[in-house]
Design a protein that fits this description.
By secondary structure, the protein is an alpha/beta fold. The chain is built from eight helices and 15 strands. The chain has two domains: 194 residues, Formyl transferase, N-terminal domain (Rossmann fold, 3-Layer(aba) Sandwich); 98 residues, Formyl transferase, C-terminal domain (Methionyl-tRNA Fmet Formyltransferase, Chain A, domain 2, Roll), CATH 3.10.25. The strands form three sheets. It has a seven-stranded mixed β-sheet with strand order 5-2-1-6-7-8-9. Strands 10, 11, 12, 13, 14 and 15 form a six-stranded antiparallel β-sheet that branches. Strands 3-4 form a two-stranded antiparallel sheet. Helix 1 packs parallel to helix 2. The radius of gyration is 22 Å and the shape is elongated. The mean pLDDT is 96.
Length: 310
């Protein structure tokens, strides 16, 4: 039996890790589609997407259209059996999906129909879920609404951040591919429909989502902070300065001050009142200063005791 001809579409580190793994499968990877190189960092250095880096290392042709429709004719010429996407970052119109002779598949980082959209990892933590996972699904014109071929779950702990969960889900995706991908490519799996009535959405994080209000119960504040670590990172405001919140933990000590009040700074962290219990900020970056553990700069941060985050 000839190998299936597959084109992979993805962009960030998550997708690059999956691409690297897929290259061990008995398929023919005929090309990779990814986003354009972008300026990164303070010096705006033009940087290749992680997926492009992996593809070039393995001498795979790379396509970087500004809009995916630009390479429609190229995709047709490649005689593709399957399109396989993972965190590509562009919506695929039906004409592109039709370029695959057999099917277009997506590896999505949630247990669909929960958290359709571009930031399912962040929102599963922000919303306080205790599990999430990977879904291998059929792509259709509607966002993440296609039939499901296979799923695999992982637990979310109270210590998980978006960063640690990201790494858990990479391993989960690799395991799911090991267990089911070839069966799907060989048409041995019957997919099931999603229940649209159970759908929820994990849209891309917007700037307003990064503001952390302490005027909520402590568990909700904790979920919000860790759901944005280590990117894009939540923040609160004090004295017109932005305090970026890189870590927190629950104290289970009842709040007796107004929400947002910094009640103490010690080697365990910055203690802040919420609507219920005190939450402890363990890692912080004050505007104009470097990121550090609160325990490393207790003397500086102590000046803010009994001031209130807005």
């Amino acid at each position: 039996m000839s190998k299936k001809r597959v084109i992979f579409m993805g962009t960030p580190h998550f997708a690059a890790s999956i691409l690297e793994h897929l290259l061990t499968f008995p398929i023919e990877m005929v090309g990779v589609v990814t986003q354009r190189d972008k300026p990164v960092g303070r010096k705006q250095i033009l940087t290749q997407p992680p997926v492009k880096v992996v593809a070039l290392e393995h001498n795979i042709n790379v396509y970087q259209p500004t809009k995916i429709k630009e390479i429609e004719e190229t995709l047709k010429e490649l005689n593709i059996d399957y399109i396989l996407t993972c965190a590509y970052g562009q919506f695929l119109p039906q004409s592109i999906l039709n370029c695959a002779k057999e099917d277009a598949l997506n590896i999505h980082a949630s247990l669909l129909p929960k958290y359709r959209g571009g930031a399912p990892i962040h929102w599963s933590i922000i919303k306080g879920e205790n599990e999430t996972g990977i879904t291998l699904m059929r792509m259709i014109k509607a966002m993440d609404a296609g039939e499901i071929f296979a799923q695999k779950s992982v637990n979310i702990t109270l210590e998980d951040t978006a960063s640690t969960l990201h790494d858990k889900l990479i391993l989960c995706a690799k395991e799911l591919c090991n267990e089911q991908l070839m069966n799907v490519l060989e048409n041995k799996v019957v997919p099931r429909s999603q229940n649209d009535l159970e759908a929820s959405f994990g849209y891309n994080i917007q700037p307003e989502d990064e503001f952390v209000s302490f005027n909520r119960p402590a568990p909700i504040v904790h979920n919000h902070i860790r759901g944005l670590v280590s990117w894009p990172v939540g923040h609160a405001l004090l004295d017109s300065k932005r305090f970026k919140l890189y870590g927190s933990k629950l104290s289970h000590q009842k709040s007796v001050h107004s929400p947002g009040t910094i009640t103490k700074v010690d080697t365990t962290g910055m203690h802040v009142s919420t609507l219920s219990e005190v939450i402890i900020i363990t890692h912080i970056q004050v505007e104009g200063r470097k990121l550090y553990s609160v325990s490393d700069d207790v003397s500086y941060l102590s000046q803010f005791v009994f001031q209130q985050f807005k």
